[in-house]
Amino acid sequence: MSDRLLVLVRHGQSEWNLKNLFTGWKDPDLTEAGVAEAREAGRKLKAHGLVFDLAFTSVLTRAQHTLDLMLEQLGQTKIPVHKHLALNERDYGDLSGLNKDDARKKWGEDQVLIWRRSYDVPPPGGESLKDTLARTLPYYVQEILPCVLRGERTLVAAHGNSLRALIMVLEKLSPEGILKRELATGVPIIYRLNADATVASKVDLAA
C-alpha cells in the first residue's frame, strides 16, 4: 500500500506575530523564535522518520523560510517545491499592518471580533475565511490531493487560515468548528489518507 502522507505546518512566529499586527498578505520574515520553531518542526519530522517527495508553500516569505528550514533539518533540500498564492494567508485588507489593539480602538472590539472570528464577514478591503477557502480548496483538490493519493509524500508549509481551509475538509469540520480551531506556529500535523481522500490517521506534533 502506498503511503498517502500529507503534513501541514503553519509557519514559525513572524515579526508581525510578535508585534501583534494583522499580517495577511504583507510579507514580514520570521523572528529568531520563528526560525527556532521551524528548525524544531524539521527535527520532529526527521525523528518520525518522514521522507518527502515534494512540498507546497505560499508566495510569502515567512512560509517559504519555514519550509526551507524544515527541509534543511530533514536533509531533503532537493525535493520539488511548488509556490502559489492560493496558499497565502487570508487578506486582512484595511486591517493589514495595524496593531490589533489599535484596530479595536478604531472600529470597536465587537466589530474587530466579528471580522476575525466570523466565517463569512470580511474586513474592509479583505477576505473572510469563506473567501480564503474559496481560493485555497480548489488548489488543494486540483494540485495537492492528487499527489498525496498517488503516494507522493507531501509537505505543506502555509498559514493559519489557508491551512484551516484544508483542515476543514480533511476533518469534516463545520464553519463553526473551523473557527474554533487554533493552529500553533511551527507545529506539524501528520495525516495519512485513505484511497478515498478521507483521513486514516492524524498525529499532531505539538510539544
UniProtKB/TrEMBL annotation:
It catalyses: (2R)-2-phosphoglycerate = (2R)-3-phosphoglycerate. Substrate binds at residues 10-17, 23-24, 62, 89-92, 100, 116-117, 160-161. Keywords: Gluconeogenesis, Glycolysis, Isomerase. The keyword NAD does not apply. Pfam families: His_Phos_1 (PF00300). CDD domains: HP_PGM_like. It comes from the Bacteria. GO terms for biological process: gluconeogenesis; glycolytic process. One of its GO terms (molecular function) is phosphoglycerate mutase activity. The record marks H159 as: Transition state stabilizer. The active site is at H11, E89. It is an enzyme of class 5 (isomerase). Pathway: Carbohydrate degradation; glycolysis; pyruvate from D-glyceraldehyde 3-phosphate: step 3/5. InterPro entries: His_Pase_superF_clade-1, His_PPase_superfam, PG/BPGM_mutase_AS, Phosphogly_mut1. Its EC number is 5.4.2.11. Belongs to the phosphoglycerate mutase family. BPG-dependent PGAM subfamily. Homodimer. Catalyzes the interconversion of 2-phosphoglycerate and 3-phosphoglycerate. HAMAP family: PGAM_GpmA (MF_01039). This is 2,3-bisphosphoglycerate-dependent phosphoglycerate mutase. It comes from Bradyrhizobium erythrophlei.
